[in-house]
Amino acid sequence: MAPRKVLAGARVVLPTGTVDDGRVLVDGTRIADTDAETADTEATEAAHTEAVDLTGHWVVPGFVDIHNHGGGGASFTSGTVEEVLRGIRTHRLHGTTTLVASTVTGDLDFLARRAGLLAELAQQGDIAGIHYEGPFISPCRKGAHSEELLRDPDPAEVRKLIDAAHGHARMVTLATELPGGIDSVRLLAEHGVIAAVGHTDATYEQTVQAIDAGATVATHLFNAMPPVGHRAPGPITALLEDERVTVELIDDGIHLHPAALQLAFHHAGASRVAFITDAMDAAGFGDGRYMLGPLEVEVADGVARLVEGGSIAGSTLTLDRAFKRAVTVDGLSVEDAVTALSANPARLLGMADRIGSLEPGKDADLVVLDEGFDVVGVMRQGAWVVDPQLG
Known about the structure:
Elements: E1 4-14, E2 17-27, E3 30-33, H1 36-45, E4 49-53, E5 58-61, E6 63-68, E7 70-71, E8 74-75, H2 81-92, E9 96-103, H3 108-124, E10 130-133, H4 155-164, E11 169-174, H5 181-190, E12 194-197, H6 204-213, E13 217-218, H7 234-241, E14 246-249, H8 258-268, E15 273-275, E16 288-292, E17 295-300, E18 303-306, H9 319-328, H10 334-348, E19 366-369, E20 375-380, E21 383-386
Parallel strand pairs: 1-4, 1-5, 6-9, 9-10, 10-11, 11-12, 12-13, 13-14, 14-15
Antiparallel strand pairs: 1-2, 2-3, 5-19, 7-8, 16-17, 17-18, 19-20, 20-21
Helix pairs in contact: 3-4, 4-5, 6-7, 9-10
């Protein structure tokens, strides 16, 4: 039987606020308590309790990434099982304890087969599900997606991908203005799959119609959609103003100007923002040439762009870097950053009863940060992925 652990002395970020000199008691795979006095008493009385002194550090919930295409040199769209697991582990080392594997546009039969492989990993608990980004997106806003493989969102074809995921489809990004788009949103909502508006050329009015039909997420807000106009407010305005919508933001200093990120936070509020990586193979791996689906990508100085055309092709971001930037550059509070990186995405996935916050009974998924907000420890389901005592 694994010893219980009491993590002591850190600033612990709880749903009720930050507790200085806090305690987190971990028993097996779950959090047993976060009350300082109770945790101390139980730790003192219980045999086989390991004390971990985290004085001078922060303890925050494990990060939850709902939009991630790969890392560690591995693609979730095309890698082998071993490569996908390597990509997952790369992000775990950076604090992402829950991850949804995103695919890029491909042939429908290929994506269905791919979903079968990823569904097995979801069944094992390695990933939290599957996100299809494409092929049901606009050729006008395709970004790093192969135009010849794009198609209108026929509900029958959307249903094929849902079924191929064997209950593990979590989200589908759609250009909802395309033929079949609204019907596909309704289909996704009926099956408990998130309909995300993205890679879209929709008007304001068309986006409102999609939200009313059941769309609840904006795929990387601002990116791959029309800008805000004073007579054509476009999808950004509709997505920001509706309380039913959570907006994804890529906080890497490349995808968004800091003022755009501040605008989204000011208008939507912390409760409606989910930080994502939109990471591709190069995350946690390095510069070089990569393939994103059928398209070649050049990564230079950490920025991924298509070799042909130069469009930004995902990111090399990890969520620990997004957290640090949010707090040290964007000026967000630690509590708001935790909400955007953990609580909100956990809620979107329907997993808030298990992950996303440090509360008794939930999975012992947490990240230990030093005073500079760099990761020094990562725990997933009670086991150290990165042990803060080993450095």
